[in-house]
Design brief:
globular; alpha/beta; 9-stranded mixed beta sheet
Length: about 425
Amino acid sequence: MEFSGDSRPDVIVVGAGIVGLSAAFSLQLKGYSVLLLDRKGPAAEASRGNAGAFAFSDIIPLATPGIMRKAPRWLLDPLGPLSVPPRYAFRLLPWMLRFWRACRPERVESGIFAQTDLMNLSKHALLPFLRKTGTGSMLRRDGNLQVYESRAEFEASLPYWDARERCDIPFEHVHGSYAISEYQPGLDRRFVSATFTPEWYSISDPLEYALTIADIFDNRGGRIEIGEAVAIFPRNDGASVRCADGREFAADKVVICAGAWSHKLAQTLGERIPLETERGYNTTLPNGEFDLRTQLTFGAHGFVVSRLSSGIRVGGAVELGGLSAPPNFQRADVLLAKAKSFLPDLVTEGGTQWMGFRPSLPDTLPVISPSRKSDNVIYAFGHGHLGLTQSAGTAMLVTDLVEGEDPSIDIHPFRADRF
């Protein structure tokens, strides 16, 4: 077998989204030669258009007993916060069964603690990572304000705030439109309560952040190749990656960070990991006169409004619809109309729509572990909407695994064979 490239790298990282970029840069800092391989190039998929949040307080999984009560109503609404296109529903049944199992209280509790460990690691790793990449000026500490339209909606959220309190996450409940307006002026008066989380950070623009890391990696001698990885092969002296065009690259270690496509590569190793695709939609509005002071979360409607250097981004929701169906931008239209209703002074003309694929596992935890088939293949994917949030912490864990060191946190909850 002939292998492509100028020289054999120490590590191949498959996937140049924010998780793969962060892992590649962290490994490079440790002295490894790294090849970064991506089907389209750096930040071409989900890392291009996300909400830009470091959502460190977002430790509650999507799979909870509460969502199972809401899901039937949501699923009947094709434009609601959680939807499954009818043509995809049968294919999704095995994933939904695992999702249902993940809603058991004991699974939710253990998942919250595992997620908290990864969040704490990622938060502590973030500032050093920003310093090393020279991107500290992009960080914003504006917090997040989650708003509620009724007392009943607020009270239903309290068990999850109690869980956050047990995990030492700071927050403040506020009540009444005047108190809410102290955090964010211009909200419609229908919102009766809100919760502010100060340690919810953001980045000025997620695409700019990712491309800056890619440039630094490249300038330090890292190698970036465009190619669609289609198979992984363990070898006695490492592992190799075959691309759709026939090229093959070999290294001592291969790290799979290919987002929503990662399970396809794991399958070539004989591992079936139940990764699904959350199709997320947003509209980025031009910068205008609206004074957005914090990220806003409209939990009952499944979307957020965030302030970026490139404009105001309105997006979210979950469409479990796979990788091949065309976008349904009616979903973005619905979110924008709701944002206008909730923020009457927001100018919603002239926006740019986008859809991205979030890699989603039934229990909301990523896979971060060696492959069962070979210690030379390491998985780091399935972060859902928390890829940016957990990127620096995941990079630290990947580096630990490549170096053969004990991981910085217990990674047993994130193992590939937990399903």
